[in-house]
Structures are given as C-alpha cells and as structure tokens.
Amino acid sequence: MQTYDFVIIGAGSAGSVLAERLSASGRFSVLILEAGGTDRRFYVQMPLGYGKTFFDPAVNWNYKAEPDPGLGGNADHWPRGKLLGGSSSINAMVWIRGHRADYDLWRDEGNPGWGFDDLLPDFKAIETNQAGGNAWRGSGGPVHVTDCSGAVHPLTQRYLAAAQQAGLALNPDFNGEAQEGVGVYQISTKGGQRMSASRAFLWPAMKRRNLRIETNALATRILFEGTRALGVEYQKNGSRHIVKAGRELIVAAGSINSPQLLQLSGIGPGAHLSGLGIEVVHANENVGRNLEDHVGINYTFKGRTATLNQILRPWWGKAFVGAQYLLQRKGPLSLSMNNAGGFFRTDPSLARPNMQLYFQAFSTVIPKNGERPILTPDPWPGFSIGLSNCRPTSRGEIMIRSADANEYPAIRANAYSTDHDVREMLAAVKFVRHIAAQPAMADFIEEEILPGPSIRSDTDLIQDFRMRSGTVYHPVATCRMGPDPNAAVVDPRLKVHGVEGLRIVDASIFPHNISGNTNAPSIMTGWKGSKLILEDHA
User: What's the CATH number for 149-184+295-389+418-468?
Assistant: First the structure.
C-alpha cells in the first residue's frame, strides 16, 4: 500500500488546481485519481468541438436524470466531464464569476472568508484577462480569458442593439463592477484552444516528481479507521487498489460523484445507506441533498439572411472553417456557441439580476444522433436567444441506488417544482420575445420557429418551457458548506463534518448556486481550498 501526503479524488475543475497548488512547494507528495483518461484530444482542445463530446462516453459520464414531472416527465441528459480537466474540458467556456451578493450570502450564512471581497483576490489570481488587469480582473494567472468582441458573428450586434432597445444597458465586462446588462461573453481559451483547468494547472505540474496522476482510476470507497479517513479504494484495469493519505484525503469529484462516493463510503442519509447494506460511518441527511441547478430554454428564430448555419452546415463551409481553424486557430471553431448574453431582472423591484441570457448566431432545432448538433446546424438561417434562471428555489437530490460504485446514482432535479420558479421563467420567456420584437432584431426575423407564434397564453408558455427546458449543467450544493453539521456537509474550511482527515473541494460545497456559469467559481474553489489546506499543514 502506497502512502501520499495528499490523495485527491477527481482531476476536474477544482482537483486540477489542488494538484498543482499542493505539489508546487515540493514539500508534499500528491496523488490525484481520475476516473477518466487524457484530455489531449482534438475535439476537447478545439473550443466548438464540445458538440462532439456532448455524448461521447470516452470523455463524458453521460448521466441521465430521473423523469422529472417539472419537465413534462422528460429524463434530462446530464453531461459531466470524465477526463483530465473534468467538465472544464467539455463545457461552453463562458467565464462568469457570479454576482457579489452570491458570495456575501455564503459569508453571511456563517462561512467566514467566503464573501466577495475575500474571494476577489483569488478570482484575480487564477486568471490572465486578455483585456489586462484592473481592480476587478487579473493579469498574471494560469487561466487565460479571451475577449471575443472582435470575433463574434455580425448578427450579435443586432442582438445587443435589440436588448438595449428593450431597456438593458451594454455591459463590457460581466465580471467587472456590475453584472447587469448585455454584452459579448469572455471565454476561457488561449490561442484558439480551450483553456481547461487541466491545461492551466495540471499540464505545467505534470513534470514534478512529487505529483502522480493516475487516470482511468475509479474511486469506489473511502477507507476509515473509526471516523478518520485513512485512504481510498479504487478500480483500475479490472483490479482493486488501495492507497493511503498520510495527511488528508480530498474529494474533488464534482456535484454528482462527490456525494456518490461519500454515500458509498458510509457518509450520508443513514436509513438510505443502511437499506442498501452499507455500514454507516457518519449519518448526515444533507449528503446528496439540497441539489441546485440552473434550468434553461432557447427561443429559436428563422432569419431573412444567412447566419452561421450557412457556414457550419454545408461540406464546403465545414472545410472552410476547418482550414481556418487548423491554419490560424481562428473562426467559429475557436469560439463558444454562446457569442453573447447578459443578465436581467424579471421584476424591477429585485435587488439584482435573476435571469441570464445567451445569444447563438445559429440554430439546432433538427437533432442529430450521437452528437449535439452544434457542428451540423439547421439548413435554414436560424439563431437562438436562450435564457436560464440564476437562483431557482427548486431543490433536488442525488442518491446512490446500490453499494456498487459502477452503478450511476439517481439524479432527481425537481425542476420548476416551486411556483416561484414557474412565475419567474414565465416572465423571462416573455422578455425574450420582447427583445426579439425590437426594431434592431424584428427587421431580421422572418418567423419564430420555437415555440412558434401559436404559443401565446400563459398556460401554453408554461407547458412549452416545461417540455423544452433542461439543465444548463450547473449542479451544485450536494455537499454544501456551512457551520451547522445538521444543515451542511462541510465546514467553512471544507472539512467534512463528523469525520477527520477528509475534505471536499469542488462545486458541491457551494451553499447556494451563483448567478451565472459555474466553472470559474469551481476553479476558484480549488484555489481557495488549496490555500486552506496549506495553512493547516504549514
């Protein structure tokens, strides 16, 4: 049995950061276990290639949620990264921190050190913003953040103009002083390639002798002596292995896999675990519960002249953008499908935005088997305006089905399970139509394709967004942080309540979701978590 000072489970957005920071001094031996394989794949590194990875079992867990009454009984597809970099290697790369008030709420609920002013230095430290550093943005960090304002499709300017005509301000930086408004999204890329957590943190650290990266290694159970975590059991190549953590075992497996591993190891809802024949090490009803996720929908329109559809669909267009990307690392393949977006309030009395917008200069109404049809859009000139809720009140759960680590857990999102979330989304979809009706956009639109002009009443709009909505891949809070062991899984230093030698460092510890995309906050959590760990082992 080998022993390392720190054993990290999961080489995703937070785990990659932990591996780099904990091994940087050379003082500690570090092992990181990753259930997936390498991220050195063409469609992973090409930004728009995530259309190819959306269903690819070689790099994607391909989870499927339980049929959800709030989504018309649909069973939602939940992609999560199963490779180095985790979901940062297959996501849409939009770089959003969230609203100041999100983190101040974390702090005010009893988590000192997690307010916005506490975390701003960490956010700045992890990034190099192409626009340069300032009071809000970093200039010397590992993650390169690209300004796409000069590269987006020209139709984006119509969207921005229409949104301003609808009453929203132009915002050049959603991570700056204010979040509200519309603008072009900044994305985590560099030189036309994806800037995942793996590329930013793991790749530079791989040469260190005190860091070992074990891929295709599925953690199956945390090993305890009493209530102290000693190590972890994992599977690789059909064999069982055990490794010991001399100082700490750190779970960074994400909002699905982290609660799953804790439950498999005897930490979780006692009655549920006992019913599956799992010995309870520490009963905690919060493990796997309090699941929060953003839910979104697209409104799709047919335009009067060409959109990206006419470039990305035909063979000659694919050849052109392919050559452009291979030779110059530029063009549509070097960007996210979300060229622009923004944040708005469905009610002016709200203190901050509660909805996020996404603008896509192409459409994918017609499905294609085996991939998200980003690279094969519709044959007519289409585009979409999408949105997602920022702070839904619906709560779900993730629960193991058996003691077998290879069996996927049950994901119950419970989308739109509160009247608040339904009313909020109803107001939001009406506002999308309000944007589309503005002169800057209305002149371009030939017709609304989805949901279509026949869907007008509140009843029909609600039924439509229940049937067509889905996750926007931001699950959090399944191992939530808090000072009260009866209401949380980890304390403010990310130590698991009720046991010793075990921390969780990933998006599952968020007390509540943030207003926006969750990858930047996940990477920040890895950075912040590594600081806490190093302080405790100084």
Answer: 3.30.410.40
* CA-based nearest residue to 409, from 533, 272, 245: 272
**Residue in the structure block whose two tokens are 């913003």:** 129
Is pLDDT of 373 > 90?
A: no
**pLDDT tens digits, one per residue of 400-420:** 999 999 999 999 999 999 999
Q: How far apart are CA 113 and CA 524, in angstroms?
A: 13
DSSP state of 193: E
Instruction: Read off the tokens for 23.
Output: 């091994």
User: Is 153 marked active-site?
Assistant: no
Q: What token pair was written down for 355?
A: 């909805």
Query: What's the rounded mean pLDDT across residues 275-295?
Result: 98
Within 10 A of 140 (CB to CB), how many other CB atoms are there? 10
- Segments of 324-461 assigned E as strands: 340-344, 355-360, 382-389, 397-399, 410-412, 445-450
Bridge partners for 245 per DSSP: 4
Cβ-based neighbours of 349, under 8 Å, separated by 6 or more: none
Distances (CA, A) of 131 to 128, 172, 329, 471: 9, 11, 19, 31
Q: Cβ contacts of residue 35 below 8 Å, gap of 6+? A: 10, 82, 216, 217, 218, 219, 253, 257
Whose structure tokens read 């290879």?
Answer: 406
C-alpha closest to that of 211 among 505, 37, 36, 7: 7
Residue 7 and residue 243 in contact, taking contact as beta carbons nearer than 8 Å: yes
Residue 2, strand partner residues = 243
63 bridge partner residues: 78
Kindly report the length of the chain.
538
Question: Per-residue pLDDT tens for 69-110?
Answer: 999 999 999 999 999 999 999 999 999 999 999 999 999 999
How many other CB atoms are there within 10 angstroms of residue 387's CB atom? 29
Q: Which of 282, 294, 474, 497 is catalytic?
A: 474
| Spatial CB neighbours of 376, under 8 Å, sequence gap ≥ 6 | 312, 313, 368
Write the DSSP string, 206-263.
TT-TTEEEE-S-EEEEEEEETTEEEEEEEEETTEEEEEEEEEEEEE--HHHHHHHHHH
**For the whole model, what pTM was predicted?**
0.98
Rg (CA), the chain: 22
Report the pLDDT value the prediction gives residue 368, as an integer from 0 to 100.
66
Cβ neighbors of 395 (< 8 A, separation 6 or more) are 289, 290, 291, 292, 414, 417
As a whole number, the mean pLDDT across the chain is: 97
Domain range annotation of the chain: 149-184+295-389+418-468
Q: What is the pLDDT of residues 418-452, one digit of tens each?
A: 999 999 999 999 999 999 999 999 999 999 999 99
